[in-house]
Write a structure and sequence with these properties.
The chain is of the alpha/beta class. The protein has two domains: 26-56 and 75-86 and 169-260, Rossmann fold (3-Layer(aba) Sandwich), CATH 3.40.50; 97-167, no CATH class. 41% of the residues lie in helices and 25% in strands. The chain has a six-stranded mixed sheet, sandwiched between helices. Strands 2-1-4-5 form a four-stranded antiparallel sheet, covered by helices on one side. A hairpin with a 5-residue loop joins β1 and β2 (18-28). α4 crosses α5 (120-133), α5 (120-133) packs across α7 and α7 packs parallel to α8. The protein is globular, with a radius of gyration of 19 Å. Bound molecules: adenosine-5'-triphosphate. Adenosine-5'-triphosphate binds next to α1. It holds the Pfam family ABC_tran. This is ABC transporter ATP-binding protein. InterPro entries: AAA+_ATPase, ABC_Ni/Peptide_Import, ABC_transporter-like_ATP-bd, ABC_transporter-like_CS, P-loop_NTPase.
C-alpha cells in the first residue's frame, strides 16, 4: 500500500514560471525513496510543497496523497497537525530547525507534549529514551545543553530524535548530512538506516549526492529542471542507468570514487 504519493505536482510562481512540472512518484509503507538531482532541480520545492511550506506567491497543483488524503486541499491548521506528527522532517542544517534559546530537552519535549499529549514526567522519560535511540548516551548533559553547545553531528542526532519523537509515518530528510564531514556523515546515515529499519518508518530522502542516497534509499527518482527524468531503483541506477542525465550523475559520483567502479562490481 502507498504511504505517500505525489501526483502531477506542479508549482508555479506568481509570475507564471513553472518550477515543478507534473512531478509524480509514490512510496509504499516502509519504502525508502531517494530523490536526486543537481542544485535547482526542484528537490527542495517538492519537499516544501508536500509540507505546505512553499514560499509566498507560489502555488501548487496536482495531488499529494498521504494515506490517500490530499494534503494540497488541507488548510493551515490541519497541515500543522500533519507536519511533525505524520510527516516529520530532518533538514541540512539542524541549527535552523533548532531554537538557539531553548535547551535540547525542552525542544524534544515540545512535539511529545503537542502531538502525543505526554505528561511532564513521561516527557522526561521519553526524551531520555529518544537520546539513547540516536546514541546520544550522555543523556543528561545533552538534554540540558543549548544547540550551539553541541557538535554538528550531535545536533543532527537531536533533529532525528525530534523527528522520530511522534512516530511519524513518513520521514522526509532533505540533505540531512550535507553539512557534515564525511565520517560523521557516514555515522548519521548508518543511524538513519538502522532507525528506519527498526521503526518501519517510510523514508523520502532528498540529496544531490548519489553515493549518499545509495546508502539509505531503495527506489530512486531522478529530477532535472523541475521534472522527473527517471524513476528507477538505486540498484538499477548504479547498474544500468537509462537516462543520460542519470548516467552523468553516476559518472560524476564515480569520478570522486565513492561508488564501486564498474569493473569492481
Ligand atoms: N523562493 C523562490 N523564488 C523563486 N524561485 C525559487 C525559489 N526557491 C526556489 N526557486 C527555484 O525553483 C527551482 C527549484 O529549486 P529547489 O530549491 O527545489 O532546487 P533543489 O533541487 O532543492 O536545489 P538545492 O540542491 O540547491 O537545494 C530553482 O530553479 C530555483 O531557482
Amino acid at each position: 500500500m502507498t504511504a505517500l504519493e505525489v501526483r502531477d505536482l506542479t508549482v508555479r510562481t506568481s509570475g507564471g514560471r513553472t518550477l515543478l512540472d507534473a512531478v509524480s512518484w509514490e512510496v509504499p509503507f516502509g519504502g525508502r525513496l531517494g530523490i536526486i538531482g543537481e542544485s535547482g532541480s526542484g528537490k527542495s520545492l517538492t519537499a516544501a510543497a508536500i509540507l505546505g511550506l512553499l514560499p509566498e506567491g507560489m502555488t501548487a497543483t496536482g495531488q499529494v496523497l498521504l494515506d490517500g488524503r490530499d494534503l494540497l486541499t488541507l488548510g493551515e491548521r490541519a497541515l500543522r497537525s500533519v507536519r511533525g506528527a505524520q510527516v516529520a522532517t530532518v533538514f541540512q542544517e539542524p541549527l535552523t530547525a533548532l531554537d538557539p534559546l531553548m535547551t535540547v530537552g525542552r525542544q524534544i519535549a515540545g512535539p511529545l507534549r503537542l502531538h502525543r499529549g505526554a505528561s511532564r514526567t513521561k516527557v522526561r522519560e521519553l526524551a531520555a529514551d529518544l537520546c539513547r535511540l540516536v546514541r546520544l548516551d550522555d543523556t543528561e548533559r545533552i538534554l540540558g545543553s543549548y544547540p550551539w553547545q553541541l557538535s554538528g553531528g550531535q545536533r543532527q542526532r537531536v533533529s532525528i530524535a525530534m523527528a522520530l519523537a511522534c512516530e511519524p509515518r513518513v520521514l522526509l530528510a532533505d540533505e540531512p548530512t550535507t553539512a557534515l564531514d564525511v565520517t560523521v556523515q557516514a555515522e548519521i546515515l548508518d543511524l538513519l538506516d538502522e532507525l528506519i529499519e527498526r521503526t518501519g518508518t517510510t523514508l523520502v530522502f532528498v540529496s544531490h549526492d548519489l553515493p549518499v542516497v545509495a546508502r539509505v534509499a531503495r527506489d530512486l527518482v531522478v529530477m532535472r529542471s523541475g521534472q522527473v527524468v527517471e524513476a528507477t531503483t538505486v540498484a538499477q541506477a548504479l547498474d544500468a542507468p537509462a537516462h543520460p542525465y542519470t548516467r552523468q550523475l553516476l559518472a560524476a559520483a564515480r569520478a570522486v570514487s565513492r561508488l564501486p567502479q564498474e569493473d569492481e562490481r
